[in-house]
Write a structure and sequence with these properties.
Helix 1 links the parallel strand 1 and strand 2. The longest helix is centred in the N-terminal third of the chain and has 16 residues. The chain is about 35% helix and about 15% strand. The chain contains 9 helices and 10 strands. The protein is α/β, with parallel strands linked by helices. The structure holds glutamic acid.
Length: about 300
């Protein structure tokens, strides 16, 4: 073993679709190309969006594609105690504050400040609750960013040097949601560290989260893994292929369909067509091709 630990971290909000198979295959190939381990983590903290049974169905889909976790599969819904500990550490360092603002409150405050926001743009929190303690238990906890800054740089293996100024581009972001659920940013950072993940390979659409995650790693004194964001799979309309955009779940009920789905995912990653028809042999062949295309 090489010390490499990678992961695929799907949210069970539906079955695998063409886009999520690309992320699964890319992370698996990168792990295997490095003689590393590949772990599957089910990111089911956003309970209202999860579909009962989607986790098991997704694991079965991965298995027919020859993609099987090298360690125990973990479910984020069972790991709240770890997120709680991390949040306490951030509280102790006074890097958090409680916030009672709704989306409408934020939009109103921004409007009052004359800040224009595009319709689908994420709202940059104007800091309303920074100084005032809300008189309710029903709060979100936000990460209190130093302002100006921090400017986070990281080198993505695919995208090259990246930079984001968290205060201006993102604002004080949520760690614990107002609807009393853990936020993705905190859970992913805690779990990547707890599972000793050395390499994150995931979809291009998640690249924008990386600076927040690097910042939390620094605050919590956790190591920063290496990042590779794969090329984005877009639908016919040029939008990200996702369940929200009506991406079709992959039907993988025959060897031919499995073969086709994998070929498509591989082509998306710019891998040549594998000459074999047997899934295990195909994966091994792509692994070699992967090394040349995506060097360490
Ligand atoms: N759970 C996230 C998703 O399904 C992926 C998180 C990650 O890879 O960091 O989009």
């Amino acid at each position: 073993m090489s010390g490499y630990v990678g992961r695929f971290a799907p949210s069970p909000t539906g079955l695998l679709h063409a886009g999520s198979l690309v992320a699964a295959l890319a992370s698996w190939l990168d792990a295997k190309a490095h003689n590393g381990l590949w772990l599957v983590r089910i990111e089911d903290i956003d309970r209202p969006r999860c579909i009962p049974g989607a986790d098991a169905a997704m694991l079965a889909q991965l298995a027919v594609c020859g993609l099987v976790s090298d360690g125990e599969v973990v479910w984020q819904s069972q790991r709240g105690h770890l997120y709680e500990q991390a949040l306490s550490r951030l509280h102790q360092q006074q890097l958090t504050y409680a916030c009672s603002c709704s989306r409408q409150d934020i939009a109103r405050a921004l409007k009052q400040q004359g800040v224009q926001t595009a319709r689908h743009q994420a709202l940059i929190y104007p800091g309303t609750c920074r100084e005032a303690t809300p008189h309710t238990n029903h709060v979100a906890w936000r990460c209190k960013l130093p302002s100006p800054g921090p400017t986070i740089q990281w080198t993505d293996r695919q995208l090259g040097l990246q930079q984001q100024d968290l205060s201006t581009d993102v604002g004080d972001f949520v760690l614990w949601r107002k609807d009393q659920l853990w936020a993705y940013q905190l859970a992913v950072v805690v779990d990547d560290a707890a599972q000793a993940i050395t390499h994150v390979v995931r979809g291009h659409d998640l690249a924008d989260n990386t600076a927040r995650q690097v910042w939390l790693q620094r605050c919590l004194q956790l190591p920063t893994p290496s990042y590779l964001h794969t090329p984005l799979v877009v639908g016919a309309d040029g939008d990200k292929l996702s369940k929200q955009h009506g991406a079709q779940p992959l039907a993988l009920d025959t060897p031919t369909k499995v073969h086709l789905a994998l070929q498509q995912a591989a082509a998306h990653l710019h891998l040549p067509k594998a000459p074999q028809t047997n899934t295990a042999e195909q994966l091994g062949w792509w692994c070699n091709a992967w090394r040349a295309l995506y060097p360490a």
